[in-house]
Amino acid sequence: MASNEISGGKLRGITKLADSNGRFKMMAIDQRGSMKHALAEALSKTDDTVTYEEIAEVKTSITRVLAPYATAVLTDPIYGYPYSIMEIPRDVSLLLAFEESGYVTEGVGENERASKPIENWSVEKAQRAGADAIKLLIYYNPDASEPACKHQQDFVRYVGEACEKHDLPFLLEIVSYALEGTTKSVDFAKQKPDLTFRGVAEFSKPKYRVDILKLEFPADLKYTDEYRTRSFYAGESAYELSEVRDFCKQLDATSALPWVILSAGVDIEEFIEDVKLATEAGASGFLCGRAIWKDAVPLYPDTDEVVKFLESEATENFKNANIAAENALPWFEHRKFGGKENVGLAKQSPTWYRDY
Amino acid sequence: MASNEISGGKLRGITKLADSNGRFKMMAIDQRGSMKHALAEALSKTDDTVTYEEIAEVKTSITRVLAPYATAVLTDPIYGYPYSIMEIPRDVSLLLAFEESGYVTEGVGENERASKPIENWSVEKAQRAGADAIKLLIYYNPDASEPACKHQQDFVRYVGEACEKHDLPFLLEIVSYALEGTTKSVDFAKQKPDLTFRGVAEFSKPKYRVDILKLEFPADLKYTDEYRTRSFYAGESAYELSEVRDFCKQLDATSALPWVILSAGVDIEEFIEDVKLATEAGASGFLCGRAIWKDAVPLYPDTDEVVKFLESEATENFKNANIAAENALPWFEHRKFGGKENVGLAKQSPTWYRDY
């Protein structure tokens, strides 16, 4: 008998997010703030003059060309879904973002971040629209003030409960941030392992009802000795590669849930290293956006050039990321499930349909 | 600009039911009454002594072996879903049945049939459980009494409204029946074209909110002259093949919606002819159960023999049906849509997510 039960909708959704071997090779194209900024640079104008149509158009192109290489596509309901939904192939599943892009600073302390939902959007709407899973991004620093931590925790619980009600998989993305200084520093690189572990420990708790964690790499390879000859090396070191491997193992040991790695806009060369190290330690794949396609955006508004880049370099990037994820741990092999033969339908019985 | 708009959930669902070219190659394993009867014969006992476990087990085997050949699997929430859901591959979509198996005769005239829903089941539950579409079977004879016709029409409208509310595709199966005598007669074979056309004309009306029709073949090839040398010929003729081709064309002309052909338990040899003739006339594929796998059931409880048959003959049957459906009209080429480039998202706009 199966020892690890999962409800029908979540089981079906998670199965669809992964490839047939249980590995996640997912693409994110739900960026809003960072996309607006990249387009502003491409068009030599200010962020606030970038139009809806410009954002929607570039998202449509990226989705059309790259979705076929993904097991799932994460998009947003504002600029993404209405103009890209027809570009997602039948066998590529759909994640929809729940959070408003960015964060607010009202009601929390200095340098602290509070996430909020997209107004007039809901888990119920996402399910109706065909979402196979809900994605929520929260900024989280466990050393932030109690009100700031509690705000984020409450928000995650709220979304976890809504996903449980609608029996949709809940994918939580945790992004750490600096309470002092910048995330682009050797100081923050040194803090990163600890910050990551503590965020994962918190949101692994069953009360949040998360199904899959989308995690930052628990270190910064830009500050890793062994990469000093690589183009992404930052010029200072925070740790050695053997320590980074240990951080990945500790991250895996801390996560009570299957987890995937995010790209946070690093270059593809660095991201492929992240994927190799993370999957070696037990990650079940990736959910990656900019590392794959970001260099297409500066070519806008020359749509031919955008598409040409997507069909050549970006496609190559995606294929390389998929190869790097071939060693990922299938989600059902995570110790939470303990193998395919141990995964069972919750409340499996002749009266399932009545009790469901 | 797109001229034929479709809501997001329905668009996504229909896309997933079909193959990447828009053709439906779907398997039905939602039989309950007929499955119980076939198992009773296999086990030399009465229908009412067939156990839940026996039905669920044979459904699980059929789903496990044959689902990979289908673009979608239709199962039932009672015996099917709880023990078969894990057997449906990530890229094979899921239809769930809404109606109770069979029909009731209370409240309608002699020999008339009224369909009813599965108790304690709902469109909302089906959506939560991961259904990509809802299937409803109704028995319909347009010459039945006004209360009998109205009962069935009201039931279809009820389900159509629920599907619209949840933005799930609604697939309606219309099965005609004899008010006098039997459906297995040359007399009924002669009535069949007219009965089929009138049912399709009724439920094509927009008020029922149907998305796809699952239809009987509009004639009976057992009573068609040109098949007199074939094993399925019944010994008497009702029409010539040229007339049958005309019936198929008339059916297509009557259906305001994309339609697929059902197998109604005929042998595979006859079904392949049905599929060829129907797709030649404009059908978008098939939703077929027994014609493909029925000969596996008499081998039960010898599960090895059941699986052996499924992996050999039944697989061959499925592959042949898929080949016969290669000429089917892609759903978006139906005149309702007028080609892929004319299909658009309903309420497509920057405020889609607010208005949805």
Chain-wise SSE layout:
The structure is a homodimer of 356-residue chains.
Chain A: E1 4-6, H1 8-17, E2 24-28, H2 33-42, H3 52-66, E3 72-75, H4 81-84, E4 93-97, H5 123-128, E5 133-139, H6 146-166, E6 170-175, H7 186-203, E7 212-215, H8 241-254, E8 259-262, H9 268-281, E9 285-288, H10 290-293, H11 303-324, E10 343-345, H12 352-355
Parallel strand pairs in A: 1-10, 2-3, 2-9, 3-4, 4-5, 5-6, 6-7, 7-8, 8-9
Helix pairs in contact in A: 3-11, 7-8, 8-9, 9-11
Quickly list its features.
homodimer; 356 residues; alpha/beta; TIM Barrel; two-stranded parallel sheet
Short description:
The structure is a homodimer of 356-residue chains. Chain A has 356 residues and is of the alpha/beta class.
